[in-house]
Amino acid sequence: MRVEIIHGIRVTMHFSLMLEDQTIIDSTFDKEPANFCVGDGNLLPGFEKVLIGLAIGEEEIFEIEPQEAFGQYNDQNIQRLERASFDDDNLEVGSVYSFENGGGELPGVIIKIDDKFASVDFNHPLAGKLILFKVKILNIENGDAADAN
Predict the structure, then answer these.
(1) pTM score of the predicted model
(2) pLDDT of 5-20, one tens digit each?
(3) Domain segments of the chain: what residues?
């Protein structure tokens, strides 16, 4: 009997996230596999959606468009902040800083510095990029049964 991935199912799988040029961003193929319940929020919906219908042993590569992955790049997510607002006198382009945003911390990358201001990019580093999502399904279990163990 073929058991397929559906919402609420616990899945054990290996995965790789790659850029279009095959640069690997993250992978579990050389370490412990990922284990999650479909719909628990551990994967972005665009990544979960392509898993639906896969079965144990299947290995696939999916192209995930930016809007289904880490979002489109948005120029409005670049903010000019006064250099004086940083505790660091040695700001450098490419440095990552954490900023309070009311609901926690938000990372931003310094992309430009002048005498008075630093431009900070708050886009996700993978925003606007097509992601290749390689998966190999190792196991599928009923989510309720897996939670009871």
Answers:
(1) 0.80
(2) 999 999 999 999 999 9
(3) 9-70+127-148, 75-121
55 forms beta bridges with 4
Q: Is the Cβ–Cβ distance between 81 and 91 less than 8 Å?
A: no
At 95 the three-state DSSP class reads coil
| Secondary structure of residue 121 in the 3-state scheme | strand
* Number of CB atoms found within 10 A of residue 94's CB: 7
Q: Is 6 helix (H, G, I), strand (E, B) or coil?
A: coil
Q: Domain 75-121 - what CATH class?
A: mainly beta
Who contacts 84 (Cβ-Cβ below 8 Å, separation ≥6)?
none
pLDDT tens track for 45-87:
999 999 999 999 999 999 999 999 999 999 999 999 999 888 8
Supply the DSSP symbol for 54. -
Domain 9-70+127-148: assigned CATH number: 3.10.50.40
